[in-house]
Amino acid sequence: MTEIKIPFGWNSYQTCSAQKCSQPYISEQGVSYWQDTNIIISLFFYVAVAGVYDISLLSTEVQRQAELQVSIPSISYNYFAKFNTDSLNLSLGTIQVKNSGYIQVNFKGTNSLVNKKSGYYPQLNSLILSNSDNKSAIYYVKESFSSHFGRRGPSVHLTYNLESKYNIQQFFNEVNVPKYWDAIGTYAMAIGFDYGYFGMQVNSESERRILFSVWSPQQTDDPSQISKDNSVVLVSKGNNTVINAFGNEGSGGQSYLVYPWVAGVSYQFKLVGQPSTEGYSVFSAYFKDPTKSQDYIFIASWKRPKTQAYLSGLYSFLENFNPEKGNIQRKVYYNNQKAIDYKGKEVKVKSAYFTYDETASKQQRLDYDGGVDNTNGYYLRNCGFFNKTNVQYGDIFVKNK
Predict the structure, then answer these.
(1) pLDDT in tens, 374-392
(2) Using the 8-state DSSP alphabet, how is residue 135 labeled?
């Protein structure tokens, strides 16, 4: 029999059942410093093979007597775990999993045995599954993988297949994030290309952005290291566009417009790119809100040195950039793509093929999906621990006109 240890630091999230509550600390060591009974800690893992599993909870610190309610909604499991100061490994009994899929285990402190002056609830380090014959039947984010990217969830992409890739000067895409699918941390990237990306983000409860970034030809994650001859230079910008440098995922020039875009509306994105005769290319981004105007809003134009290129490698992606929100589903539709070459001729977009990042390819997370809806266009979906779909890496999607 195999014992499987699922770390909270890689696989758990917190929610609050009240309007305000104190926040626990979720780190790679686990869940610490929580004493509010309104907090719910949820841990997720995927079971591929139905069966009976013994479960227990491992803690490295128990400051006081406490009681936790442990529940698994999908199998109507409820258990009250009583900790005392010498209970570092506590049996939670046996569960029977009848169907493959994601399991959510919730932990909530109760008022029983509570004395706030005597410390926090037990630190949550690992959930242990035992009495399993097949270790490979359980999927979760491993300690050998990045907790940051594991908790963010998988990123998913669509690469557009054009009937001609030659000298594409303009590309158009329409983006619709459905109502209730616009969680904080969402980046619905509309038009990516070999040298940058352009799309819309949910940055906080009160701020949303239209973001356009262009990478420097110098490979570095530190923008301060970019030499002058490799610097992406701003040509011009829209009236309210904010200009920054960016790093960590390559480096270059960043421009964004704070804009209150709304879920359920189809916004239009336009990207223009062309080479100069002086050894650089210029890339320009435009955004249209059809509920406000039929005119495009100019975001910015960037000059990329050591580049002689039109638009190439055209794609879209959906990601979550907030690791605290990886337990919330996201979805986006992409529709009405159009490409125009340097002679003004329209180039047909024939199909799109589906890919994903390492979080999915290394099977740390299985909550990803993509496809085509002939009414709303191509779609991408990720995060939220929905059950595994049949979509495969490299699947090709074709819209019926």
Answers:
(1) 899 999 999 999 998 899 9
(2) G
